[in-house]
């Protein structure tokens, strides 16, 4: 069960804002992206884009944002479309579209033109892959993991196994929304409890925060739609690989050492990337940035600095 302990979040240097990317306010096509930002302490070594998973938000990175900044990196941590304080449009949940949202956020709204280091977890890992493959020149490196990547051989073999039973449930039309309405906290808490190796990593206040976010109108529907797009994601990723070949962006597979997903990490990244390595966050289950924040930061920074020195 989630811990009763309350960890202090060092967020004094953060800023929080929203960027209107597309659509008409209050219409189903409105795309507004909320993001957290923390400037580098001292000389800026580069920019790190942190992309969260489901059922979480940018709050997932609460224990690592400041540490990355202290290591000399400017950090951008958005809520992807449909999650957290971002809007909940009716469509656009393929990972290529969601990656394009974040590319627009960085390039057009924040004016960031230099290549950035992408770090994606869970659904964020799928988005990170789409970002790195579709925006190669704008990606300095990519670290992603804790997800069966649609389009890979491992995903096809894995998608109907008991460990990811929720894939099939989320793919159903309307039924998940009907069954989960009013029970959002109970439903999402199941994932924290089941996939966590360190139960004190996500405390009751954290669960309350996530439950508040996913109890918003449209939030669970958006979350389910992210999964419903997996079929198209797989098609797009496979077509991209066949047409363009393996991605040339330096890539790191980043998974919890105690996560069941670590076992398929190497086969997926080897299938999709030319220059790759596999790393684990020690003692962590699925929720790497929350279960072992210091090692998560260390593994990302070590890879980023390796890439920069190459």
Report on this model:
The chain has 310 residues and is α/β, with parallel strands linked by helices. Strand 5, helix 3 and strand 6 form a beta-alpha-beta unit. The longest helix has 17 residues.
Short description:
With 310 residues, the protein is α/β, with parallel strands linked by helices.
Topology:
Blueprint: E1 14-22, E2 31-38, E3 46-51, H1 65-70, E4 73-78, H2 95-109, E5 116-121, H3 123-134, E6 139-145, H4 153-158, H5 165-171, H6 175-180, H7 184-195, H8 204-214, H9 219-228, H10 230-244, E7 251-256, H11 265-272, E8 276-281, H12 288-291, H13 293-309
Helix pairs in contact: 2-3, 7-8
How would you describe this structure in keywords?
310 residues; alpha/beta; 8-stranded mixed β-sheet; 8 strands; 17% strand; globular
The tally of helices reads 13
- Average pLDDT, all residues: 96
End-to-end separation in angstroms reads 44 Å
> Tell me, what's the shape?
globular
Helix and strand pattern: EEEHEHEHEHHHHHHHEHEHH
- Give the percentage of residues in beta strands: 15-25%
Ranges where pLDDT stays below 50 over 5 or more residues in a row are none
Any idea what the radius of gyration is?
18 Å
Helix content, binned percent: 40-55%
- Assembly of the depicted chains: single chain
Largest sheet: 8 strands, mixed
């Amino acid at each position: 069960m989630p811990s009763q302990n309350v960890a202090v979040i060092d967020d004094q240097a953060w800023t929080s804002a929203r960027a209107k990317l597309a659509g008409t306010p209050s219409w189903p096509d409105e795309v507004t992206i909320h993001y957290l930002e923390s400037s580098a302490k001292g000389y800026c070594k580069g920019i790190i884009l942190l992309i969260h998973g489901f059922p979480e938000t940018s709050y997932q990175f609460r224990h690592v944002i400041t540490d990355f900044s202290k290591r000399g990196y400017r950090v951008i941590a958005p809520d992807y479309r449909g999650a957290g304080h971002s809007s909940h449009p009716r469509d656009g949940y393929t990972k290529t579209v969601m990656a394009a949202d974040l590319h627009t956020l960085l390039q057009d709204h924040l004016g960031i033109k230099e290549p950035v280091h992408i770090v994606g977890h869970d659904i964020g890992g799928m988005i990170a892959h789409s970002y790195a493959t579709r925006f190669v020149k704008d990606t300095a490196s990519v670290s992603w993991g804790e997800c069966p990547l649609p389009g890979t051989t491992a995903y096809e073999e894995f998608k109907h196994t008991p460990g990811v039973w929720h894939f099939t449930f989320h793919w159903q039309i309307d039924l998940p929304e009907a069954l989960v309405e009013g029970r959002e906290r109970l439903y999402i808490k199941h994932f924290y409890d089941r996939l966590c190796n360190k139960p004190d990593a996500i405390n009751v206040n954290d669960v309350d925060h996530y439950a508040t976010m996913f109890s918003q109108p449209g939030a669970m529907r958006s979350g389910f739609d992210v999964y419903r797009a997996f079929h198209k994601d797989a098609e797009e990723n496979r077509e991209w690989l066949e047409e363009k070949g393996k991605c040339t962006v330096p890539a790191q597979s980043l998974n919890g050492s105690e996560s069941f997903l670590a076992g398929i990490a190497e086969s997926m990244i080897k299938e999709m990337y030319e220059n790759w390595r596999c790393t684990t966050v020690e003692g962590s289950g699925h929720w790497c940035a929350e279960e072992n924040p210091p090692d998560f930061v260390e593994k990302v920074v070590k890879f980023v600095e390796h890439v920069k020195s190459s």
